[in-house]
Automatic annotation (TrEMBL):
SUPFAM superfamilies: MetI-like. PANTHER family: PUTRESCINE TRANSPORT SYSTEM PERMEASE PROTEIN POTI. The chain crosses the membrane at residues 7-34, 73-94, 103-127, 147-164, 185-206, 237-260. It is a multi-pass membrane protein. Belongs to the binding-protein-dependent transport system permease family. CysTW subfamily. Residues 69-256 form the ABC transmembrane type-1 domain. It comes from Rubellimicrobium aerolatum. Keywords: Cell membrane, Membrane, Transmembrane, Transmembrane helix, Transport. This is ABC transporter permease.
Length: 278
């Protein structure tokens, strides 16, 4: 067997350093969150315990941790559902060219290159000038959609670009209505992509800071609450909070992947049953 070239080890080293740079801060926070009651915000650690995790579930003198978590969770679910529905509708609409489709596509994607803080400022000004209250569930919701919808639409454009219309033609030949074709043919086929769009929508919303900064009103979402806590919390409780939010994010991703795997198994089982029936 030929020995590996020197460039392989160089690239492996660079990649390893990149992973350390990427996950090192998260690992450091996780380690410091397990300090004892006398622990501080830096190394060396002073004991090891679950004290600061227990402290999270007690009444906090500063901040609204669980209230902000609930708002972020609800907002993430709303953004996820809206992103999935609008992305599917947009993907279906863009399957055929129509007047102004190119311009509309560019306008949708343009929000990805506009600085997030300017989007937040603009949405806040629109609501203020319209006499509408600045609230995380209205203006914050709209500001976050400018971030999640372009990603969802790009995914759906790629999916429908490779979608074989023969499936729909076969359904129509069998007497299916347009809605039945979408419900029983199109949606089951693109179901894995729908899960991907939903995951994108939820995770992008859950940790969004800049686009929510000027649109959440008087009640913070979790990223804003954590940022505020960095100015007045001097104990490892903030590290414990960071560790729990990271674990929650990983659980959400794991739940989506598990759902995708179950759906793939059911689809494979249904295909094998149909083959045996034939």
């Amino acid at each position: 067997m030929d020995p590996r070239p020197r460039s392989f080890y160089v690239l492996a080293t660079v990649f390893g350093l990149f992973l350390l740079f990427l996950y090192g801060p998260t690992i450091t926070i996780a380690i410091l969150s397990f300090q004892g009651p006398e622990g501080g915000l830096t190394f060396p650690m002073r004991g090891a315990s679950l004290h600061w995790f227990r402290d999270l579930f007690e009444q906090q003198a500063v901040g609204d941790i669980w209230g902000s978590f609930g708002r972020s969770l609800v907002l993430g679910l709303l953004v996820m559902a809206t992103t999935v529905v609008v992305s599917v509708m947009g993907g279906l609409a863009f399957r055929k060219r129509f007047r102004g489709s190119g311009l509309l596509f560019q306008l949708v994607i343009a929000s990805l290159v506009i600085p997030s803080i300017l989007v937040s400022l603009g949405v806040g000004l629109i609501f203020t000038q319209a006499g509408l209250p600045i609230h995380w569930a209205t203006s914050g919701f709209g500001a976050q959609l400018t971030w999640t919808l372009p990603f969802g639409l790009l995914i759906m454009f790629a999916v429908f670009n490779r979608f074989d219309p023969a499936y729909e033609e076969a359904a129509r030949d069998g007497g299916a209505t347009p809605w039945q074709t979408v419900r029983h043919v199109v949606l089951p086929i693109i179901a894995p992509s729908l899960l991907g769009v939903g995951l994108f929508g939820f995770t992008l919303s859950y940790d969004e800071f800049a686009r929510t900064l000027l649109t959440s009103g008087s009640r913070n979402t979790l990223p804003l609450e954590i940022y505020g806590m960095t100015t007045n919390v001097t104990t490892p409780v903030i590290f414990a909070l960071g560790t729990l939010t990271t674990v929650f994010s990983l659980l959400v991703i794991g739940a989506f992947l598990l759902t995708l795997r179950i759906a793939a198994r059911r689809r494979a089982r249904a295909g094998s049953d149909a083959g045996r029936a034939v």
